[in-house]
Amino acid sequence: MALQWISTGFLWSQWLVQDLANIFAYLPRQLDASMLIFALVVMLGLHAILFYQRGGAIQGIVTSKTNTQDIRSATLIDFAYALILIFFKELSNVPMSTTWVFLGLLAGREFALVISLHVSSMKTAGRTAFSDVTKAVAGLVISVAIAFSMPYLSAYTGGYEHESNVPTVVSPD
């Protein structure tokens, strides 16, 4: 039980660091302390809502997998995912999405269980993986649509002018 708490805390800390890094990549490069505090409060608030909902939809996806109710399996999944996040955050230059890595981890685990232990059929594992990918693609399409609509929404509401990082040439006169 103690290892489960440690692995879950480790996972959530790495997930929060990764999400904050992704968010701060889109913010202006010069941030003051109030912007940092605001972002931290928002992210921690959203994570608190997830904790209150006992994982929400994410937990539904996890519990639909084979043997994830067993505390030993859940502990190993948490540790493996946290280590993968550390790898991508610290050792790799390849950008990654926490959602896609997590879905890949769960799908790979599911296929490995089918191959090695014959716990279900390959068709069932494939159907589950396809369902998860479909949900992720739907989320991706929605987020891209929101991202592309932001300039139009900004112009419609009076807008926010983004500072250009393009250097200007000043004449010596």
Structure in words:
The protein is mainly α. It has one domain (2-156). Helices cover 73% and strands 0% of the residues. The protein is built from six helices and no strands. The chain has helices at 2-24, 33-52, 56-63, 71-91, 98-117, 122-156. α1 runs parallel beside α4, α4 (71-91) crosses α5 (98-117) and α5 (98-117) packs antiparallel against α6 (122-156). It starts with a helix and ends in a 17-residue tail after the last helix.
- Total domain count: 1
* Helicity range: over 70%
The count of β-strands is 0
Extract low-pLDDT stretches: 166-171
User: How many H/I helices?
Assistant: 6
Structure described in brief:
The chain is mostly helical. It has helices at residues 2-24, 33-52, 56-63, 71-91, 98-117, 122-156. It has one domain.
